[in-house]
Design a protein that fits this description.
Blueprint: H1 2-15, H2 21-28, H3 32-44, H4 46-60, H5 63-80, H6 86-113, H7 120-149, H8 151-157, H9 164-171, H10 176-180, H11 186-195, H12 197-218, H13 221-229, H14 233-261, H15 263-283, H16 287-305, H17 308-315, H18 324-335, H19 339-350, H20 352-372
Helix pairs in contact: 1-6, 1-7, 2-3, 3-6, 3-19, 4-5, 4-6, 4-18, 5-6, 5-8, 5-9, 6-18, 7-8, 7-14, 12-16, 12-18, 12-20, 14-15, 14-16, 15-16, 15-20, 19-20
């Protein structure tokens, strides 16, 4: 619950911006492209947060760094609502990226280490679906909060997650796997990370492509519907709610399927479904076809993503599970940080539909190849393998 809520509220704080590109551009007297680039700054700073909070999690346990992270990103999000000019807004969105980058790795390691083996797949899907729930809540806020109270209130609402820290403090136990392999110092952690650099490199490659997949199909889609098809803000919000329901279904269903089919082959099956939906998602001739395509495509996209928490945590050595999955995850977003800017630029050359479709076709095909030649450790027993003594 703590990991799910943390990722839900973290995602909400990120996605409120994508529903307000035009609004923020008009308020700060900048171009829409300038506002789109703020998402790049947010994404690019995420590895800093992953490394910082991940190291703290391996050294001092999962709970306290998770509480500190939630409080940090909540305060920064709240302050975004007071930004007096665009420069301050850009700085705050970059700082928010540090908080966003720290939450996933710590929350995922705590959740997966606390899950029974037989439930890992489905709970991985539940955990990752927090991202889609956050997107859904941002769509609801864009539909009801934005018209009633304006853009600043969108960020003020995003400050409420700080209350989650009290829940973590009172209700969440420390990870037993971490207690068995807690680090003596930060240098020992970094030595062990260096020892497993090949595993880290594979994770980073996988996560870079996965970020191309998620951000390339989600971040600009509301703007695509508004500018390419003239869909109203209210209708865009409802469509976003619809396809995020599909994403939640996909994450949980494919997460459970991975318990029997394996992590990689289940991800490939989900990716094939997403690939088949691209024509309806990008080239639909009616609003019904576009909405249906987006719904089904996100079942596939988040179906693959629902397996990521358990897959990365099973690949990671026990003693550095706080830092490695999250750092690989966020390095992937660093390398994929320009996704929105690339697609937005391609729009002027190939048209919005082809910009989205061609980018994702290449991404999905590349992902399938990487997964086919990759590895997995499904069912690995956490807390019983490698300890820090092997690195000293």
């Amino acid at each position: 619950m703590a990991g799910f809520l943390g990722w839900t509220l973290d995602a909400f704080d990120y996605f409120v911006v994508i529903f307000m590109f035009d609004t923020l551009a008009a308020h700060f007297h900048v171009s829409k492209a300038d506002v789109v680039r703020t998402t790049v700054y947010t994404l690019a700073l995420r590895p800093v947060g992953a490394l910082l909070f991940g190291l703290l999690a391996d050294r001092y346990g999962r709970r306290k760094p998770l509480m500190a992270n939630v409080i940090f990103f909540s305060i920064v999000e709240f302050l975004c609502g007071f930004a007096p000019n665009f420069t301050v807004f850009v700085v705050l969105r970059a700082l928010y990226g540090i908080g966003m980058g720290g939450e996933w790795g710590v929350g995922a390691s705590l959740a997966m280490e606390s899950s029974p083996n037989r439930w890992r797949g489905v709970l991985s899907g539940v955990l990752q679906s927090g991202y889609s729930v956050g997107y859904l809540l941002a769509a609801l806020a864009a539909r009801f909060v934005l018209p009633a109270w304006g853009w600043r209130a969108m960020f003020w609402v995003g400050g409420l997650p700080a209350l989650l820290a009290f829940y973590i403090r009172l209700r969440v136990p420390e990870s037993q796997a971490w207690k068995q392999h807690q680090a003596e110092d930060f240098r020992a952690i970094m030595r062990l990370v260096s020892k497993h650099k090949a595993t880290l490199a594979y994770m980073v490659l996988l996560m870079t492509l996965m970020m191309f997949l998620s951000h390339g199909t989600q971040d600009l889609y509301p703007d695509f519907l508004k500018t390419q098809h003239g869909v109203s803000q209210a209708t865009v919000s409802y469509i976003a709610i619809l396809y995020n329901i599909g994403a939640i279904i996909g994450g949980i269903a494919f997460g459970q399927l991975s318990q029997s089919l394996g992590r990689r082959y289940t991800m490939i099956a989900a990716l094939i479904l997403a690939l088949m939906m691209i024509p309806a998602w990008a080239f639909g001739s009616s609003l019904l076809i576009l909405a249906t395509g987006a719904f089904a495509l996100q079942i596939g996209v988040q179906g693959a993503w629902g397996i990521i928490p358990v897959h990365l945590n099973e690949l990671s050595p026990d003693s550095i599970r706080g830092v490695v999955p999250g750092f690989a995850y966020q390095l992937g977003i660093l390398f994929a940080a320009g996704t929105n800017a690339i697609e937005f630029g391609l729009r002027n050359r190939a048209g919005y539909s082809w910009a989205l479709a061609s980018f994702e076709i290449i991404t999905i095909c590349s992902l399938i190849v990487v997964l086919l030649f990759g590895s997995e450790q499904k069912g690995k027993a956490f807390g019983r393998h490698e300890s820090l003594s092997t690195a000293t």
